């Protein structure tokens, strides 16, 4: 009697390739992470292996040190990057200078709020960030309660690829520390969200009050226990007395 | 004598009220944390961390615990982590009491330019515009002039703006100055620094 399969039926995929099924040329793909922190490393590699191209990549940084999303730039599969910070990402700078890639820079808070709006059914919003700067150019500006605001549009995506510490089979997610960053918001903004899980657990193993991202926002899960997790800037202190 | 970098960071740290929420920008502002008594204030990092602690001891660093400069850090007891939308809602919503930020130019009207050099490489905006716009008070921590002697405290910014009319105080190696519209009011000068020398290195009136 239940002949139609719902979107939340059997989410766990047994391979990265299967988890990326339907990710096609020309799509907009959001990828979580703050620089190399909290990257879905296997899914990022999987998109290159899949051969999808002409992608619009939405991510805060688009990789670093030749790692993470820099591999997409090197593979030549990205036509446009929507980000907030390029920094010293030479892979991005060189392609920008050569004109082979288009880059749209957003203030970081605006970037993530555009995602949040897309996921929450809000087509546009007003923000004070960027008023009186180049960010304002070409956008509607409105005065509300005596202050000027810029109208920014929602930013949806075809796919979101995110990494999480612990995921149950329904797709309830827990992140670890600052690896959370954009990931749960991207998950709300995409038509298909794929989670790369460090640890895959049975339903019930995560207390409902401890869920960071409810499974309604997750469509596919792939279990990937091993990660490189590069550190961009290793800053440490000496232990007092040099004791271990 | 001018303020050393450590002096500047210490002086900027003195701007942080007890029990406040502070965001320290990347670079020199990060050093301010070294001059805060334990438990004095709560450090916010826009990548999703409140209650940020010092750098970890060697061997304790974790790739999934970093600050907005992508440096490995720690989280103190009472700290919390959250997503970027929540983090920037804290900033934009006026919940962060103070931001201490680096600057390329500050105008007498309090305009801030700190994200791009005309003709230079585009490094991106990151959290700069949100922090400058949303934090309740903004202090700029910067060199008083460029190495070539070009003014950085100016009548009007010539670099791309980050936000307008937001900087309340500027701390440089020469002293502490408040942009008050018609110029910069001298709050204090570094020990032994001559006011005329400061005036020559400032691109707006000293008041």
Keywords:
heterodimer; A: 244 residues; alpha/beta; 3-stranded antiparallel sheet; 6 helices; globular; B: 207 residues; Glutaconate Coenzyme A-transferase; 3-stranded mixed sheet; 4 helices; 13 strands
Description:
The complex is a heterodimer of chains A (244) and B (207). With 244 residues, chain A is of the alpha/beta class. Chain A is built from 6 helices and 12 strands. In chain A, strand 7 and strand 8 (147-153) form a beta hairpin. The model of chain A has no long low-confidence stretch (mean pLDDT 96). Chain B has one domain: 3-Layer(aba) Sandwich (Glutaconate Coenzyme A-transferase), CATH 3.40.1080.10. Chain B has helices at residues 5-13, 84-92, 128-134, 195-200; strands at residues 21-24, 42-45, 49-53, 74-81, 98-102, 105-107, 112-113, 137-141, 153-154, 167-172, 175-179, 183-189, 205-206. In chain B, the strands form 2 sheets. A 10-stranded mixed beta sheet of chain B has the order 4-3-2-1-5-8-10-11-12-13. In chain B, strands 7-6-9 form a 3-stranded mixed beta sheet, with no helix packed on it. In chain B, helix 2 (84-92) runs parallel beside helix 3 (128-134). Chain B starts with a helix and ends with a strand. The chains are: A alpha/beta (244), B alpha/beta (207). At the A-B interface, helix 5 and helix 6 of A face helix 2 and helix 3 of B.
């Amino acid at each position: 009697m239940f002949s139609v399969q719902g979107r939340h039926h059997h989410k766990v995929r047994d391979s990265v390739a299967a988890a990326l099924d339907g990710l096609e040329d020309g799509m907009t793909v959001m990828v979580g992470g703050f620089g190399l922190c909290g990257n879905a490393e296997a899914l990022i590699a999987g998109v290159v292996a899949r051969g999808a191209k002409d992608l619009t990549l939405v991510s805060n940084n688009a990789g670093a040190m030749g790692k993470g999303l820099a591999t997409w730039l090197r593979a030549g599969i990205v036509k446009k990057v929507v980000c907030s910070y390029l920094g010293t990402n030479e892979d991005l700078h060189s392609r920008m200078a050569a004109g082979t890639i288009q880059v749209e820079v957003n203030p970081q808070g605006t970037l993530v709020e555009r995602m949040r709006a897309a996921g929450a059914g809000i087509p546009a919003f007003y923000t004070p960030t960027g008023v009186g700067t180049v960010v304002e150019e070409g956008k509607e500006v409105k005065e509300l309660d005596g202050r000027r605001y810029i109208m920014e549009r929602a930013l949806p995506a075809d796919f979101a690829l995110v990494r999480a510490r612990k995921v149950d089979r329904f797709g309830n997610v827990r992140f670890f520390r600052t690896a959370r960053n954009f990931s749960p918001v991207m998950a709300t903004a995409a038509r298909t969200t794929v989670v790369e899980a460090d640890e895959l657990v049975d339903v019930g193993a995560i207390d409902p009050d401890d869920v960071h991202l409810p499974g309604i926002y997750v469509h596919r899960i792939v279990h990937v226990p091993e990660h490189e997790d590069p550190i961009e800037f290793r800053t440490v202190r000496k232990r007092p007395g040099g004791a271990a | 004598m001018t303020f050393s970098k450590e002096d500047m960071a210490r002086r900027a740290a003195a701007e942080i009220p007890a029990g406040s929420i502070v965001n320290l920008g990347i670079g020199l502002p990060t050093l301010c944390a070294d001059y805060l008594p334990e438990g004095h204030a709560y450090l916010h990092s826009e990548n999703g961390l409140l209650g940020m602690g010092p750098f970890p001891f060697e061997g304790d660093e974790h790739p999934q615990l970093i600050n907005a400069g992508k440096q490995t850090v720690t989280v103190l007891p009472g700290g919390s982590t959250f997503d970027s939308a929540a983090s920037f809602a804290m900033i934009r919503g006026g919940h962060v009491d103070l931001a201490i930020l680096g600057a390329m130019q500050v105008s007498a009207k309090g305009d801030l330019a700190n994200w791009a050099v005309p003709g230079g490489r585009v490094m991106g905006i990151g959290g700069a515009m949100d922090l400058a716009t949303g934090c309740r008070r903004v202090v700029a921590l910067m060199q008083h002039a460029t190495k070539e002697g070009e003014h950085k405290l100016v009548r009007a910014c010539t670099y791309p703006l980050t936000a307008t009319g937001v900087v309340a105080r500027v701390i440089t190696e020469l002293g502490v100055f408040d942009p008050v519209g018609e110029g910069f009011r001298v709050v204090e000068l570094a020990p032994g620094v001559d006011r005329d020398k400061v005036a020559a290195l400032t691109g707006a009136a000293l008041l």
